[in-house]
Amino acid sequence: MTEINPAEHYTDGDVDTNDLGRPSLESMAAARYSRRQTMFRGAGATTMAFMGTGLLAACGDDDGESSLGGVTVSAGENAATSAGRVVTLTGSASGTLSGSSAPNWTQTSGPIVQLSGTTGTVTFLAPAVSAATDLVFTYTATSAYGETSSASTTVRVSPAALGFTAVAHSLADVVVVPQGYTVTVMTRLGDPITANTPAYKNDGTDTDFGNRIGDHHDALAWFGLSAAGGVDASSSTRGLMVQNHENITQKYLHVSTIVRDEAQVTKEMEAHGVSIVEYKDAGDRKWGYVQGSSFNRRITPFTETAFRGPAAGSAMLRTKYSPDGTKGRGTINNCANGVTGWNTYLTCEENYAGYFRRDASDDALRSPRELASLRRNGITSRTGSYSWSTAPTTNTAITRWNATISSATATSADDFRYEVNQFGWVLEIDPYDPKSTPRKRTALGRFGHEGAFVRIAANQKVAFYMGDDSGGEYLYKFVSTATWNAADANATDRLAMGDKYMDNGILYAARFNADGTGDWLPLVFGQVPPRPASSSYPDGYTFVDQADICVNTRFAGDAVGATPMDRPEWTTGNPVTGEIYLTLTNNSGRTATTTNAANPRSYSDPRVTGGASSGNPNGHIVRLRETGDNTDAKTFRWDLYMFGVDSTDYDATKTNVNVSGLTTANDFSSPDGAFFSRATNAGGQIKPLLWIETDDGAMTDRTNCMLLAAMPGTVGDGGAVTIDNGGGNTQATIVGAKATAANLRRFLVGPVDCEITGIDTTPDGRTMFVGIQHPGDSGTAAAPGGHWPYTQDGSTPAASVRPRSALIAITKNDGGVVGL
C-alpha cells in the first residue's frame, strides 16, 4: 500500500550428495557411447554458459557462489543442470545423409520435456525434480544407404535452486536486476490504451485518463489469451494484464497550479482504479502492449458497479445514486488483489476512508451507531483526500465525496451519507468481457482490504484470505458454502461463478494463540456478541443483522477477540503445501508492553538521516497451515517465517531484533507484496519460490525498495524463542528457520522513492511482471525527485522530466525460468 502521509555458499542439508551406488556421468558415458561413431562431430567437453549482463549489472553477494545459466551439451556427451534452466542439445552428422530423413533428437528416458528448435540444435527447460534425475536424449542420423547411427546424451537435473547472485543495496534511480536478466519497461502512467488516444506528453496537459493507463501501479495479474481471443490459462505469449492503480502523485498530473475544478478532479479520479490491457510477445519474450485491443478497458471511480451478498440492498448502502442500495460508482485506492479459479480478477479497496469529507454539522445529524462506525473505519476528515468534493460542479460523481447529511429532514435518497459504506470491499472483474459490470462481494466484509488470496483445493470449499492494512487490525478468511467443482474453471459466465462461491459462506477473523495454534472465529449474526464498550466507543456496538456485520467488519473482529496485527498486508499461498503467508509491513504503534506472540518485537530503528523510527518499523511475515490442510478448517498452526531488519544496524548477533539472521545480501524492511511462482512452471513446483516486495520508509536511507526471492520451508521448521524488548518486557513466540544465502536473496532494487508492488509471471515462468509505484515523487513538478523510467536505459534526462509509475517485464537472457 501507499502511505498517504508517511513518517516518513551454504547448504541446508537438502542436497543429495551421496553417490554410493550411483554411476558417475563419466562411467555412464563409457558404457553407452562408442568413440567409433564418426558420423557425429561434438563440440568437445561439456560447457557451462554463464549468464550475460542485464541493463544494470548487480554486484556479487560474497556468498562464494556463481550464478549458473544454461547448459550446452553435444551428442554423445553429458551435462548437469538444475530445474528451470535452459539446456541446449547440439548434434551434427557428416557423410552422405538420407534426403528423406533428417537427423533428429528424441528423448528416450526421464521426465518428458518439450524439445524446441531445429533438427541439429534443440532446447528444453529442465523440469522440476525432487532429487537428482537423469534425462536421456538420442541424436540419430540415417545415411543415404539406409544405415543409422546414434549417440546418446544424459542430462542430470538437480532440484531447483536460486540461480542468481544477490543484488546489492542501491540508491540509484534505476531498476537493478542480477546479471543475466533484462528489464523492459511496459505500460506507464498515461500511456494510451485506445487507438485514437494521443501519446502521453507528460507535461501536465494530458487529459482523457479514462482511456489511459492510471497512476501508482499496484497489484497485477496475467490472464492468458488464445489466438482466437478466448481464455487460455496456459498462454505465455499473449494475455491480458490487469493492474490496480492505487493512488496518484497529484503534482505530476497537472501543469503547475493545482485547483479544485471539475477538469482537474476528473483527471485525478480517472487516474485511480484498474486497467486491463492486452500484452503480446513478438517472439523470444520481446514484449509490448496492444494499444487498440478490443479488450483494453479502464475501471475507474466513474464505472458502474453492482453489489452482491448479504449487504446488497441494505439501508446502509442506499444513496441518491442508488436508492435501493444495489449499485454504485467505481472503485478507489485499489491495492492488493486475488485471482479466482474461474478466471476473474479481485481488486481490493484499501484506504478509501480518506477520500471522504464530513463537515462539522454532520455529527449532530448522525446516530451514535453511525458515528461509531464512521470513527472505527477512519472517516473523519473535514476535507477528504485531494478535496475533490470542493470542486464547483453539480456532477454527483464528484460531489458524492462529501458524505455530510444534507439536512435534518433529508433521507439517504437525498444525499450521499452512506456513500462511505459503498467502499472498502472486494470487487470482482471479468477481464475477458469489457462490457461486464464489476460486482462488489459484500460477504467478504468491509475494511481496509489489502488482498484476497484465493485457495482452491479439490473437493473442498473455496477460501479467501484477506488482510486489513492498518495498525492493530486483523486477518480474515471467507469460506464458500459451495464445494469447488473443477468444471467451473471453464465457465463462460464467470461472474455467475463469483455469485456461487463469493455470495454465500462464512467470514472468519483469526486469533493467533501463544502456543503456535490458531482459531478462525466466525463472524455470523447470532454468534457474534456485541462489541464491548471502550474509551473510544463508550456505547459499544450491537449488530442487528449479517449486513451490519459485513459493513462493520472491524467491530465484529473486535467483538470476537481476533488478534491485533502489525498492519496485515498481502496474502499468498504455497501451491505445494497450501500454507498461507501474510506480510505484516510495520507498526509504529507497537510498544514493548503491547506485543503478542504473533507480533513480538518492539524496538528503535536508527536511520542515517531522518531520525529513528520505533515500534515494529521493519515488519515480519507470518505463515499458517490449516488443520488437515482443509480450507474449511476452524483451527491452524502458525509461525513467524521471516523478520525484516536493517542488518547494518542490527547484525546477526543482535538476535532480539535480527531474529532471522539476515545479512546485507538479503536484509529488507516492510514486506508488502507477496507471491508464489505459478505451479505451471518449475519455479512453483516441489519447493516453490516466494517473492517478497517492500514498501519501506525505515531503511530507504540505505537502499531503495526491493524484491527478494526465497525458498521457504514449512510451518514448524524453526522453534520457540523469547525476544527481549527491553525494560523487562519479553515476548515468547515461534519462528521459522533462519535465512541463508541458499534460501533468501535480493533479486531487484527499484529506483528512487518507489514502492515495489504488483507481481505475476507468465505460466511458463520465463517472464516476470513487476509494478514500480510512485518513483521520484519527492521534489516538485518543475524539479522532480527522480526521473525513472527515463533513466532505465542509462541516459540522463533533463532535470524537469517527470517520473512515471510503470510496469516492467523481467526476462532471463538465456530464456530460463526467472529466479532459477
From TrEMBL:
Region listing for Disordered, in residue ranges: 1-22, 590-620
Pfam name, any one: PhoX
Biased composition (Low complexity): 590-599
Matching InterPro entries: Ig-like_fold (IPR013783), PhoX (IPR008557)
Name under which the protein is recorded: Alkaline phosphatase PhoX
Taxonomic source organism: Novosphingobium soli
